[in-house]
Amino acid sequence: MSDKHLSSQFDADLNLISSKVLEMGGLVESQIITAMQALNDFDGEAAARVIAAEERLNTMEVEIDEECSNIIARRQPAARDLRLVLAISKTITNLERAGDEAEKIAKRTKRLMEDGASRTVNIAEIKVSGEMAVSILRRALDAFARLDTVAAAQIVRDDKAIDEEFRAFVRKLVSYMMEDPRTISVGLDYLFIAKAIERIGDHAKNIAEFIIYIVKGTDVRHKSRDALEREALS
Predict the structure, then answer these.
(1) Which among 71, 93, 94 has a CA at the least distance from the CA of 84?
(2) Looking at the domain that runs over 8-233, which CATH code has it been given?
(3) Tens digits of per-residue pLDDT, 181-222?
(4) Rg for the chain, CA atoms, rounded
């Protein structure tokens, strides 16, 4: 992922933590897919698997963060190498939080099942946004592996589509709950799930922004999409 160094061990250290980030990302992606399966099928066993795997994600975050600290202490990296290590530390935080959101989806699904919730609410937008979230996270991890700023800029643009699906679902939920107050409890659970999916998209977008920071050396957080794209393509 980075330029060759005089110390082959330094290269090995950087490649190792980068590989572990991708491994953690793969686990998070699997968590989200399983959580959405649990929701779509009302599958309690799938929901339980998501919840049980959360501890592994927490452990991976701590282990990778510790390795980042060790590299900084031992190698004293500078310039792009330092940006890479710092971005990895922030990336795994976002991955862990995306895993938390998958766990929230699983827990809310179990609650819906325990409450005997029927399909009283059309959740088409949730399904679509869930598929988008999985796709955008997968592409963010691929862009991270290749340090592809063009792909990163596209990911930031595409996150807007998840936000639009969320807003459309909120509008529909409000209509459901106004027409039939009996749907309020179920509606709030689905709203919580939709918000969790939106947050997964946000975490993927954050990872894309870190890619631009590694390569370009510019912190593009909180910049407009147009300004971010100009930086990524410059």
Answers:
(1) 71
(2) 1.20.58.220
(3) 888 888 899 999 999 999 999 999 999 999 999 999 888 887
(4) 19
